[in-house]
Design goal:
There is one protein chain. The chain has about 90 residues and is an alpha+beta fold. It is built from three helices and four strands, in the order αββαββα. It has a two-stranded antiparallel ribbon. A two-stranded antiparallel sheet has the order 3-4.
């Protein structure tokens, strides 16, 4: 989740030589600072060519799983607290 939290989705406009148009994605250099494994770099190792969005899915799924575990733990705590409140009410 920490890595996912560092990613910043942006809207951008493609340069004409790449087809023009408005799009949504990430700035590859920023992604490369967080998850370098999903970025293809130019030979100078400074400028990014692209983000491999398919590989980025693995990180997102791991984050969803982590988040789901937290939700389940919180739900369990809520149920336990509700049971305690019911016990106190019945006294």
């Amino acid at each position: 989740m920490d890595k996912i939290g560092l990613l910043n989705p942006v809207y951008y406009d493609w340069k004409k030589e790449y087809g023009s148009g408005h799009d949504l994605g990430f700035i590859a250099e920023e992604v490369g600072k967080v998850i370098p494994e999903v970025v293809a770099w130019e030979e100078n190792k400074i400028d990014a060519k692209s983000v491999d969005y398919a590989r980025l899915n693995a990180i997102l799924i791991a984050g969803i799983k982590e988040q789901q575990k937290k939700i389940e733990d919180q739900q369990k705590q809520i149920e336990e607290l509700k049971a305690e409140v019911e016990k106190l009410k019945s006294r």
